[in-house]
Amino acid sequence: MDKDVFEVVLSKSTKDLKIKRILEMKSEPALPKGENFASTIFKITLKVVLGNGRIATKSFIAKKDDTDEPSNDFKLFNPEVLVYTNILREMGYLMEEYGDTEGPLWCEFIHFSPYDSTIIFEDLMASGFSNVKRTEAQDLDHARLALRSLGRYHALAKVLEERGLIYKDDYKPFPFLNNEAHIRNLIYGGKQALAKGMRLGWGEEWAEYADKLSKVSFEEIFKRIKDAGNFDDNTFKCLNHGDSWNNNMMFKHDWEGRPIEMRFVDFQSPHYNSPCIDVTYFLYSSIKPSVRHQNLQSLIELYHESLTSSLDRFGYKGSKPSLEDINNGMERLLFFGLCFFTACFPCVSSKRTDAVDFDLVFKTNGEEGYNINVYYEAGVIEKMEEDVKTLVKIFDS
């Protein structure tokens, strides 16, 4: 997007009417290589003249679709634009209606250019927000705030559904529970890569576990995962965020470094199903494994309290899920969570920028594209051993 076009875009933005003219415009990558998997994120810095004549610096974030093939499931910018312009706008109105003072759970949407598949957002970093480092994963304080925020988001979505503003049939199923290509390439392929890495770097005592993992067929994994996501009509369901992992969350911290606010920054993959899917995806992709092991039930209880209290706060009239309902949903999804964690966590937590080549993964049906070295980096065994043993026990049962 050139300077003149961007100037017109900002002149139509209610928040930035005070910008009169752009003097200079600079674009640079907003994230290091390896931090984003389906798009390129740019930071746009502007030197502008304000309405009062003062010169100021403004910054924005641009996200550009990286995929080449229109059929690729990662090409989801249009759904994200619809979420921003419809769903999140209505959530904002709902919060105003009930006097909610906790603040939004999203950043401000500025503009979408369909010609080059680029979305412009506010720059949350300019307001003091930052990511938890992907390589470190979230601690307990960040995980608690993230789950509280998920509960609020799910409740807002359910109230909008009750008002006829969200239609479940408008959304595709969650690919990691339904799409054969995603499960074969990203979960089964990652599991096979893990087994290879275990043989190379985990020691002889892990050889039996590696053999058992490698012998489990794709057909068995696909059936189990698909069955896990097939919740019946009596289940409490709502619009899920769809990609609720660490890199899609930004936090503001107090002076002691404790997280006090959170924003979701990616709404490319919304889907309609049990909210336990978002919770499971987050717990097994984004927090320190030791934190999950030691605090799993208390985190689930915190999420449930946030969901139900938010449903009450926003005037939901339907039946709310009990803690037992949420626990049952989480237990149902345990197999998926463990498969997803053991296959993908080494890649998403690795400091390497070449941990995975998704283009090659999809071209080879998951047989290539994974850097086997990440599965036996320093510290990986300690992070994964408990969940690997649990998963193998499930396979043996």
Automatic annotation (TrEMBL):
Cross-referenced Pfam families: EcKL
Protein name from the UniProt record: CHK kinase-like domain-containing protein
InterPro entries linked to this entry: CHK_kinase-like (IPR015897), EcKL (IPR004119), Kinase-like_dom_sf (IPR011009)
Species of provenance: Nezara viridula (Southern green stink bug)
Region forming the signal peptide: none
Domain CHK kinase-like: 119-313
